[in-house]
Amino acid sequence: MELTTIWFIAVAVLFTGYFILEGFDFGVGALLPVLGRDDRERRALINTIGPVWDGNEVWIITAGGAMFAAFPHWYASLFSGFYLLLFAILLALIVRGVAFEYRGKGETARWRRNWDRCIWVGSVVPAFLWGTVMANIVRGVPLDENFDYTGSIWGLLNGYALLGGLTTLLLFATHGAYFLHLKTAGELSERARALGLRLGAAAAVPALVFLIWTQASFGSGVSLVLIVLAVLALVAGLALDFTGRGGWAFAATALTIGLASAALFCALWPDVLPSTSDPANGLNRENAAATDKTLGIMTWAALVFLPIVLLYQGWTYWVFRRRVSVDHIPAGKAVAS
Questions:
Q1: Which of 50, 107, 122, 177 is deepest in the core (most CB within 10 A)?
Q2: pLDDT confidence of 314, banded at 50, 70, 90?
Q3: For this UniProt entry, which segments traverse the membrane (predicted)?
């Protein structure tokens, strides 16, 4: 297997891992004002992702670094052409991270409510925009002979991309609800399970339309198999949630997101950023790649450090595996204003 193929797969795996892990983070943040009826419940919801959310973001940092080193032309065209969308995602992630740290620093109810709103915005915006970005990558954008994006921000907000954003937002929210069913106890856990069932049913329609649109316009035989499996996993998640098997429902939505992401990258292959203005100006795994020497050095470095990172993150999830109960949250000191 050629090194360009290996690193295309590596970038796809990193993005897929990010969507699965950060997906439930975004889901928890998006559901914060829905499930959290009072300050103690909202604090319990935040505590479920408190030990892991920043570690989950390492996946997208690594994915961006791998793209920059392995496919520099892809990185340059993507980050310049999609600048406003990616900047909005970055800004939302910064606001979200600050909100996690500063929410408990004030003693007034208004202070905490304002930071809760920041957590919600910082979760909903990336959850929607990542789907928009991925859809545009698969669909392609207008590029000139220098691989520069020649369109506008409005060209990125096309129907297919917006449907992709709605799909990821609803799937991540469902994923987050199932995660909360696993990580909380008592009434809060049951409310999360019931909400997950409703969200999963709501996500099924746009997800199905988006995946069929993807297959019809850009798909291959492999992507078709992955899309069928993704749809079956989503249906299985709904059935498992209905029967009260929260752990398996969470695994099913993780599988749904993973298979759907893999299907998008298979539909993209062997391109990395097609050109809609002139196919000859499109980027593929060959003309976007770095030199073989660079790819070789990166491969050896990944073989050494990747297992260490995976073991560390797995250990983190094991240490913080216990459920969070509202009963364990002390009464807050916040006053009314």
A1: 177
A2: confident
A3: 6-35, 81-99, 119-139, 159-180, 192-213, 219-240, 247-270, 297-320
Give the chain's length: 337
CB contact burial 67-104 (16+ within 10 A = b; e otherwise): bebbbebbbbbbeebbeebbebbeebbebbbebbeebe
Please tell me the distance from the alpha carbon of residue 50 to that of residue 267, in angstroms, as a whole number. Answer: 35
Contact status, residue 200 vs residue 253, Cβ threshold 8 Å: yes
Q: Is the pLDDT of residue 250 over 60?
A: yes
Burial, 30: exposed, middle or buried (Cβ in 10 Å; 0-12, 13-18, 19+)? buried
d(CA 54, CA 108): 26
Domain range list for the chain: 3-190+268-328
Reply yes or no on whether the pLDDT at 273 is more than 60.
Answer: yes
Joined tokens for residue 237: 């998640």
Single out the residue of 55, 67, 134, 126 nearest to residue 91, CA to CA.
126
